[in-house]
């Protein structure tokens, strides 16, 4: 080999090495910058050249893909999209993805790192996508949504299977139609209108908004007291008001009334009539640590990997007994999502065992073979079966005293939560948490700002009818 040929060969070899190094650098370190750059249309075109997996619930297709005349696939939401929008989310060429469409995007578009999907793709000319099946029961979901929406309420409702954690309904109002965001001809106008609308329709109020739970939190406070030796017969004050320890500030019963007309009551009566003064006295005696432990057992401040965004609840700081007294009735800094409150009811219904809530049942391939399946998962058992049984009996007594009681076997607790700067003059959030003993269904409902009753709203008058309608509709389990 003469010198000129050798030099040319060496030069070519150096260029090839530089090219390989550059390609390796781009693939390893620049993939996110280039391949996922919003200005790179190649990935979008590739994904739209093949159908996307379906999202379904109860055998009903909620989201699917259809090809246009050019062979490009577009997302559609064929079944009651506003009812399911807060869970299924949207897929938009302009505004990206949300909800289940976002969290399971790789599965739906066939790029998930799944051994089963990879194996199936070896014998398929197209990418093998996964279809996501939700735990939602369509009838229950529609009742939950329509109960809120038809009344014009801003709020949310969740129904859950206590023994497994399956979410049977998750409704949020006002909601949105994901179809208008998936359509490029309507997306921009719809996006502006939705973001400007009152009630934040793009927000899933069941999981993304934390609110003071009011007296529904007394279930947690009672669990704390029961762990310290309290019983339904334990004596408590029934006075119309109580001075918070170490202050001159007073806290009153609802309407300024004496509890059941008596200056002294037992815990059963105090719970049944939701007497604030009794709960202040009881919580201070039981102590802040007991309340914190009970809140932890119920998962008040936990978030769950649902595939949809979730805010974190809190009981807040409890620096002294005055703060403890206020927190014991679900006020001060206590804040929870509707899902968190549904888990409280479900934990009592499940004998004190808290299960992990989930909204995705399984993922299947187009040939209906199962790619993955969500199994029930126990998270905590810190609430004893005895405490759960006592709470059930107390909640059954509360239901008997709640407006609209229809004789059905329901265990419940209502809440009427003050909020805002001038809390005593606010339109309260109306809450209702409940379950049907032995039927393996629990619910939580909130109607924000009093619904259509303003300052006169209570959990019993506004939220309870919705919760009962959901319980009457939800499929029964075997618990």
UniProtKB/TrEMBL annotation:
<dbReference type="Pfam" id="PF00905">
    <property type="entry name" value="Transpeptidase"/>
</dbReference>
<keyword id="KW-0131">Cell cycle</keyword>
<dbReference type="InterPro" id="IPR012338">
    <property type="entry name" value="Beta-lactam/transpept-like"/>
</dbReference>
<keyword id="KW-0812">Transmembrane</keyword>
<keyword id="KW-1133">Transmembrane helix</keyword>
<dbReference type="InterPro" id="IPR001460">
    <property type="entry name" value="PCN-bd_Tpept"/>
</dbReference>
<feature type="domain" description="Penicillin binding protein A dimerisation">
    <location>
        <begin position="52"/>
        <end position="122"/>
    </location>
</feature>
<dbReference type="InterPro" id="IPR050515">
    <property type="entry name" value="Beta-lactam/transpept"/>
</dbReference>
<feature type="domain" description="Penicillin-binding protein transpeptidase">
    <location>
        <begin position="155"/>
        <end position="471"/>
    </location>
</feature>
<dbReference type="Pfam" id="PF21922">
    <property type="entry name" value="PBP_dimer_2"/>
</dbReference>
<dbReference type="GO" id="GO:0051301">
    <property type="term" value="P:cell division"/>
</dbReference>
<dbReference type="InterPro" id="IPR054120">
    <property type="entry name" value="PBPA_dimer"/>
</dbReference>
<keyword id="KW-0472">Membrane</keyword>
<feature type="transmembrane region" description="Helical">
    <location>
        <begin position="7"/>
        <end position="28"/>
    </location>
</feature>
<protein>
    <submittedName>
        <fullName>Cell division protein FtsI/penicillin-binding protein 2</fullName>
    </submittedName>
</protein>
<keyword id="KW-0132">Cell division</keyword>
């Amino acid at each position: 080999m003469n010198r000129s040929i050798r030099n040319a060969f060496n030069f070519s070899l150096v260029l090839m090495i530089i090219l390989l190094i550059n390609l390796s650098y781009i693939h390893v370190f620049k993939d996110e910058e280039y391949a996922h750059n919003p200005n790179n249309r190649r990935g979008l075109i590739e994904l739209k050249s093949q159908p996307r997996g379906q999202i379904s619930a109860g055998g009903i297709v909620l989201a699917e893909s259809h090809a246009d005349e050019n062979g490009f696939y577009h997302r559609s939401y064929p079944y009651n999209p506003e009812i399911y929008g807060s869970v299924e989310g949207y897929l938009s060429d302009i505004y990206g993805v949300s909800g289940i469409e976002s969290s399971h995007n790789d599965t739906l578009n066939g790029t998930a790192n799944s051994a089963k999907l990879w194996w199936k793709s070896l014998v398929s000319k197209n990418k093998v996508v996964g279809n996501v099946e939700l735990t939602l029961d369509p009838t229950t979901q529609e009742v939950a949504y329509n109960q809120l929406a038809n009344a014009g309420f801003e709020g949310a409702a969740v129904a859950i299977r206590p023994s497994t954690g399956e979410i049977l309904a998750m409704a949020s109002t006002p909601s949105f139609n994901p179809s208008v965001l998936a359509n490029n001809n309507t997306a921009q106008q719809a996006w502006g209108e939705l973001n400007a609308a009152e009630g934040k329709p793009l927000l899933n109020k069941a999981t993304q908004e934390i609110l003071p739970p009011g007296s529904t939190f007394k279930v947690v406070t009672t669990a704390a007291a029961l762990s310290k030796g309290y019983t339904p017969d334990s004596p408590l004050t029934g006075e119309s008001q109580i001075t918070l320890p170490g202050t001159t500030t007073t806290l009153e019963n609802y309407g300024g009334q004496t509890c059941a007309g008596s200056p002294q009551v037992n815990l059963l009566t105090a719970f049944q009539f939701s007497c604030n003064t009794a709960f202040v006295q009881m919580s201070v005696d039981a102590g802040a640590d007991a309340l914190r432990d009970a809140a932890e057992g119920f998962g008040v401040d936990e978030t769950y990997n649902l595939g949809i965004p979730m805010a974190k609840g809190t009981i807040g700081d409890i620096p002294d007994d005055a703060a403890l007294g206020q927190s014991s009735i679900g006020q001060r800094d206590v804040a929870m999502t509707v899902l968190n409150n549904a888990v409280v009811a479900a934990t009592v219904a499940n004998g004190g065992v808290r299960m992990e809530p989930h909204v995705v049942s399984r993922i299947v391939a187009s040939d209906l073979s199962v790619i993955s399946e969500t199994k029930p998962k126990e998270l905590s058992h810190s609430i004893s079966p005895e405490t759960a049984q006592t709470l059930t009996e107390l909640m059954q007594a509360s239901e008997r005293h709640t407006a609209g009681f229809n004789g059905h076997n329901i265990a419940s607790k209502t809440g009427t939560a003050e909020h805002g700067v001038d809390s005593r003059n606010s339109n309260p959030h109306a809450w209702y948490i409940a379950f049907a003993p032995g039927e393996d269904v629990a619910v939580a409902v909130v109607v924000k700002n009093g619904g259509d009753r303003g300052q006169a709203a209570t959990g019993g008058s506004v939220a309870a009818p919705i919760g009962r309608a959901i319980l009457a509709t939800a499929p029964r389990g075997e618990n």
